[in-house]
Amino acid sequence: MKLNCLRTDIVQAVTNVQRAVSSKSTMPALEGILLKVYDGKINLSAYDLEIGITTDIEATILEQGEIVLSAKLFSDILRKLPEEIITIETDERMITYITSGQVEFQIIGMSAVEFPDLPVFEANDTIKISSSVLKDMIRQTVYAVSDNKEKPIYTGSLFEIENKKLRIVAVDGYRMAIREEAVDSDSKTDFVVPGKTQNEVLKLITEEEKEVEILIGQRHVSFNIDGYSVISRLIEGTFLNYRATIPNESVCELVINSKRMMSAVERMSLMTNEKIKSPVRCAIGKDEMKISCITTVGKASDSVPIIATGEEMEIGFNNRYLIDALRYCDTDEVRFVLGSGFKPMLIKPIKGESFLFVVGPMRLSNDY
Known about the structure:
Helix content: 10-25%
CATH class of the largest domain: Alpha Beta
Largest sheet: 9 strands, antiparallel
Structural class: alpha+beta
Strand order of the largest sheet: 14-11-12-13-26-25-24-18-22
Number of domains: 3
Strand content: 35-45%
Shape: elongated
Number of strands: 27
């Protein structure tokens, strides 16, 4: 194998593909990047047995071949090379020579035979969506994905396609986030994509005016993003019937400035930490919400103007869950919808149904 390529191109490709490299594995090849050199291109792939990322870059191919190189070492070397033109050559002993100007490295590679094949699957459905829209949808929901490995199904988000809409739902038992957008698809299907996969998709979306193609198989999904393919297994299992968990009664509704509310809750959060947990108390009046927090550290209070209808009430929330939901509202003002008793609060846009965030309450003590 022998080739010449531009350092800028291969550094960018290695940086992106490297995210699917296994950090610790009993298979050394999984800690490497597979280079396949053929027909004027280099194909670079990484795979940790859950997520694979692959892409092609152009190169001048002098001799075809395949090699697996340590991802960290290869990446570190490429970043330190002085010239833009790089020569990479591998001999029959798997020694790889990387040359740039007067600099030459010799590193030991591994046979491509040791690298596991990336999943190949038949797509049952295909949808295309604007990269900027998909980026917003994932960003506004993935925060609510669970990290509890005992319930694997909730470590991913439900992608639901029906009635020409794509809906993404994430839930972790204390909160839920839902985003939906129109898509040009007559399909009716649903599948659960791991949160880790979604985060890698987010990192790869840089050109916001392009389209992302989503290929959906029985057990795998592929996101094709601007020359990169992110191939992931789907999470098997039965996802929560999320519609049945959304409260449908309201005893109090209010309109509030999302940024102002988030700032107030962040100030209350200064009274809490990982060891000291206490709810943020929200006392809802007709035109004002009084916010307070008391812990062994001290106490804090603030107030935010609101427009409210219905009953006056007090309710408590986990500060982090409330901040997360407010952070991902993409409107200046939002609606808080509260039910009676110990029921979750809904956060919605003033108009439309593009997002829905559900935050479970915390019980309040009488220490105030």
